[in-house]
Amino acid sequence: MDNLLIAFSLTLFAGASTGIGSLMALFSKNFNTKFLCASLGFSAGVMIYVSFVEIFIKAKISLIEIYGDSTGYSITVLSFFIGIFFIAVIDKFVPETINPHEMKTPNDRIDDPKLMRMGVFTAVAIAIHNFPEGLATFISALKDPFTGISITAAIAIHNIPEGIAVSIPVYFATRNKKKAFLYSFLSGMAEPVGALLGYFLLIQIFADSLFGVVFAFVAGIMVYISLDELLPAAEKYGEHHIAIYGLISGMAVMASSLLLFLPS
């Protein structure tokens, strides 16, 4: 029960970070895009490293113990790419004009009569994206709270520009900061909703074999998010090398933290 509460709390925090992005966009006079660039790169580094070094490996070990070397490894790899395919399909069916990857910066000044519609559609698109992210955060934290904290931090950073993407068009359409914040915040709440739905759907059949499949699936989702969303967004907000330095820093911090918690 303790792990369940921790996992849900972490997922709730990650989802609520869209509100942080909204507040940064609406109330910061001098928005530091280079800092955001480095943070997004850092988040990508954490997620890529933990996906390949921690989550994928745990999934493989779990499935090999049940099905043997060849079959277990094959199921792990297949589940990993199914995770990539799953999030890619969701991404594909979101129109480019409202895709949360195509973001405006808070310093942009835009004026379009269709802004409110764009803001609402962007919120819906982000909510759809956040369902599998919420499941990924929740399942990871449920199995290993330490790994869950690392993933939560990465997802939370990732959600900041998504909050910006929703709040900017809504604000310029309504000139209402409270409404812009509310739409942004609610889009992030899809993450804990996705976590709860996933949990209640899987709880009856959760076993070591399913854990391995889901963990590999989650690794695929996180790698896709890092390569398709985080790194392109980092480059959009800053400079190429700042994004790369952030990426390497994220990997180094994640590697160091995992080493600290190795059993002696």
Concise summary:
With 264 residues, the protein is an all-alpha fold. The chain has helices at 2-27, 33-67, 69-92, 115-143, 145-174, 177-188, 190-202, 208-237, 240-260. It is globular and about 60 Å long.
Layout of helices and strands:
Blueprint (H helix, E strand, L loop, with lengths): L1 H26 L5 H35 L1 H24 L22 H29 L1 H30 L2 H12 L1 H13 L5 H30 L2 H21 L4
3D architecture notes:
The chain has 264 residues and is mostly helical. Mean pLDDT is 79; it is low at 105-111. 83% of the residues lie in helices and 0% in strands. It has one domain (2-26, 38-256). Helix 4 (115-143) crosses helix 8 (208-237). The protein has helices spanning 2-27, 33-67, 69-92, 115-143, 145-174, 177-188, 190-202, 208-237, 240-260.
Average predicted local confidence, pLDDT: 79
Number of strands: 0
Spatial separation of the terminal alpha carbons: 28 Å
Strand residue percentage: under 5%
The number of domains is 1
The assembly state of the depicted protein chains is single chain
The structure class reads mainly alpha
What is the ordering of alpha helices and beta strands? HHHHHHHHH
Basic shape: globular
Helix fraction by DSSP (H/I, runs of at least 4): over 70%
Low-confidence stretches: 105-111
Radius of gyration: 18 Å
